[in-house]
Structures are given as structure tokens and as C-alpha cells.
Amino acid sequence: MPPGAFAVSKNEGAEYRLSLSPNISMGPRGFARMIALSAGFLALPLLAVLGTPVLWGLLPFAGLALWGLWYALSRNAAERERLHEELRLTHNEIKITRNNPRTPTQHWHANPYWVRLNLQEKGGKVENYLTLEGGGRVVELGAFLSPEERAKLHDDLSLALRHLR
């Protein structure tokens, strides 16, 4: 899900929430098509040995390759679903919770007045490397987003921070 726009309000009780998750490049239909296409391509060489004992020697390897593809795609989709970041911004606190697929959930919070938002267009770990600095730590935000999405998130978040200060 690409970054959404923050609502801008100067009310004392204003709260801004943002949920970030990776883009889904292949849905269930794409998954089924990929498995079917792979099964078809794996079956092509087996047609040449149809009716011979060699077929029974090659069939387990073709099945294992197809199962390996299915397992890898399924695991990737499951881990992508678990990966997301939640950002909550109020007048008194900015809080980020990052749910990782295989590691414990990470939490970070700071006073938004003292938070610095940095966007390194070049020279960072990735293009448009977005970080928040505050509370004695530097945290990366939206690592799984595209460079354009991180730039848009920077603009939206800097606007929201300006209006809450």
C-alpha cells in the first residue's frame, strides 16, 4: 500500500495514523498462473520419454521442482503479509511500530518537537533513504517502499510534523 496523505489539523487532540506495507506484486491469480505455467514447461521434456521407464525416474525431480517453486512463492507471500509499519503521530508523541516476518516487533517513540526527518536522495543505503532521528536513535522508515513512495511519504510527514509543532 503506498503512503497515504496525513490529515492536517491544529487541534490539540489531532492524531495522524499511517499504515505502510509492501506492494503486492503477485496476487492469488498470478500465483496460480505461475504454478500452471511452470508445470506446463516441466511437462514438455517429459513428453519425449512418455511410455518409457525413464519417465518414472524424471517425474520425481519435476514434482520436486514444482513443489519448491510453490513453497518459495507461498513463503514469500506469507512473510510479505507480516511485514508492515504503523506510524502514529500526536501533538505529544510520534510512535512507529514495525512488524517483521522473522524477528521481534520493533518499537520507537519520541517527542515530535525534537524529531528530525531526513531524506537522503543519494548516498544512503537506498535511493531516497528516509530516516527519523529522535529519542536518541535513528530509525529507517518505509524501507520496503519505492524511492518515489519514500519521497512522497517524506513530504506528507514533514507537513504533518510542521503543523503539530
What attributes does this structure have?
four-stranded antiparallel beta sheet; alpha+beta; PH-domain like; 165 residues; single chain; 2 domains; three-stranded antiparallel beta sheet; elongated
Highest CATH level, the class of the largest domain: Mainly Beta
Gross CATH architecture of the largest domain: Roll
Secondary-structure element string? EHHEEEEEEH
**Under CATH, the topology of the largest domain is which?**
PH-domain like
Please identify the oligomeric state. single chain
What does the largest sheet look like? 4 strands, antiparallel
- Which percent bin holds the helix content? 40-55%
Number of strands: 7
The overall average pLDDT, rounded, is 88
Number of helices: 3
Order of adjacent strands in the largest pleated sheet: 1-2-3-4
Quickly give the structural class. alpha+beta
The percentage of residues in β strands lies in 15-25%
Uncertain parts: 1-5
Shape descriptor: elongated
**Structural domain tally:** 2
User: For the CA atoms, what is the radius of gyration?
Assistant: 23 Å
Distance between the termini: 28 Å
Question: Briefly, what is this?
Answer:
The chain is α+β, with helices and mostly antiparallel strands and 165 residues long.
Characterise this structure.
It is built from 3 helices and 7 strands. By secondary structure, it is of the alpha+beta class. It has a 4-stranded antiparallel β-sheet with strand order 1-2-3-4.
